[in-house]
Amino acid sequence: MAHFALIDQNNKVTRVMAVDNAYESRGAEFLSVDCRMGGRWIQTSRHTYRGKHYKGKEPLRMNYAGIGFTYDEQKDAFVPPQPFPSWTFNQAECGWDAPTPIPTTNNEDFYSWNESELKWVKLDK
Asked: Is the pTM of the predicted complex or chain greater than 0.85?
């Protein structure tokens, strides 16, 4: 399946749709005209995150688009919303970085960002 994001007049993603691979080359036109959905559709890849494609292919537009993301025309990239005020934008990866990296322990531990304390908090199991 190929995926396309619907962009509004402010370059915000309002919808993401999948189309059959047979329509990938004209996916934007297929959704806008054939399906009578109108609007501006831009292709996105569900395997792309922070400038890397996790199936070894060429990354597409830095991130898989989600509702609320912004399409940056100059970068030709989908930028996620800032998750917390303390996080800073990483220009190279088009993603947001916490003030401190998430702890690396083992695959059984889960952490959540605590904005009021500006630290990662281990979640109870």
From this structure: yes
